[in-house]
Design brief:
Low-confidence stretches: none
Structural class: mainly alpha
Strand content: 5-15%
Distance between the termini: 17 Å
Helix content: 25-40%
Radius of gyration: 17 Å
Largest sheet: 2 strands, antiparallel
């Protein structure tokens, strides 16, 4: 995936004060819910996120799971991007 992004970036010309930009909106805002245990269903071609159990919002408690497979995949992709492009900082955070 990083090789493909690199190829696409290399095909562009950056003039003036422009700079390469990578949009990873393919992960989408719902992915944060998957990081905390929601089920991701992409069987329809889009991605829908469903809770494991439907409970009242008053009982909702969100836990960060650093070992979540989807979170680890996103971190791996970010780490590969940093390695590929020379250890640059991504949004102020060195991965």
């Amino acid at each position: 995936m990083i090789d493909r992004l690199d190829y696409e970036l290399c095909r562009q010309t950056y003039l003036g004060d422009s700079f390469p930009f990578i949009n990873l909106d393919c992960f989408g805002p719902g992915l944060a819910s998957a990081f905390m245990g929601a089920r991701a269903d992409n069987s329809t071609g889009g991605v829908w996120f469903e809770p494991v159990e439907k409970i009242p919002i008053s009982r909702l408690h969100l836990d960060y799971d650093g070992g979540n497979p989807m979170l680890l995949r996103v971190k791996d992709l970010c780490r590969a991007a940093v390695e590929r492009w020379g250890g640059v900082s991504l949004s102020g955070w060195l991965i």
